């Protein structure tokens, strides 16, 4: 770490300690304090945004920030701040920028990996449900992935699957082995109990994102009877133990109106969720259910609702398809993240099951510079309209060209599906969304010659 970043790290931790002493009084003053310990040019956009938030105590973002000091265990809160803000946001970016420049490739901010293909549920339309307990990454392989990636600046790791908490003990072991990283998990929540909450309090660097499809009827109809009740129990355990958690919502043609309702948002805030990841249903694999894909009208509904609630609800939200304008389009292929499945295949995205590299045969850096990942690097963004970011769902043919040029193979465990077969299922959705996305993009001030940014 450079001398400059060492000073920034020390300054940020001093600022945190200042807030910790009296959050209600000191949060509004924090930027003035930060100005005394961190150079003006550092994290300038973020500092402007924070000033806007903390300048109004009635602001929903201010309420969310203050709730972190009242609702979250002090040790967990400090560890997450240090690992997420300082290690990932300062130390990691310095390393990642060095590798990006030297190798002219993407270096991910976060890595998703599947400890196992096994799952204790059988959700409608989920590819993982078809795989069974056939594939697993060993603890040593997962530890090696983290060790390699940290050396290139990646400090954030998200477990997917399968159901990651089938491997609870190894996940906690990784948290212990890498206390400078943030670990999270997309989980159905049914395996979270008091004992696991105690382990989370002990390691302090694990934050679950619980998958929930809406209220009881919508959740149980896709995930099985009793799942919603188990999810609510898990949230109650986490909230009672002052552990941070979020929710993961897949909106489909069957539940979009529920997921986007004010009643649903309010319920999740009341349960204690601090963040929410939103995904639209993708028809991955030959066993997928294309009829679950949202209509263009439903996708626009979610676009408006999430933006509305960002201004009114104390919940941090990201919609991985409709928020492309904030991150410059597609973030897969290592641009912000990549995915490693339970068989060791290194994939551009959790929804793109094609690979030309395996962790058992290549290093991460070799994968990042492979033809498949460089195809992403050289073609992003896939559309000038950032509301059409995806090379499959929004831009049919783009993924096929990259996969065919790179020689990447399908990583589907059961039924090999070509990239063309995959995108064929998305052609109608892309055609229907394009005029809606273009209208929204223009109306938000991105039209040529409009004079807006």
From TrEMBL:
Q: Which residues form a coiled coil?
A: none
Query: What domain of life does the native source organism fall in?
Result: Bacteria
Keywords from UniProt, A to Z, are: Iron, Iron-sulfur, Metal-binding, S-adenosyl-L-methionine
A Gene Ontology molecular-function term?
Answer: iron-sulfur cluster binding
Q: Which residues form the Radical SAM core domain?
A: 105-313
Q: By what name is this protein known?
A: Radical SAM protein
Give the organism the record lists. Candidatus Scatomorpha intestinavium
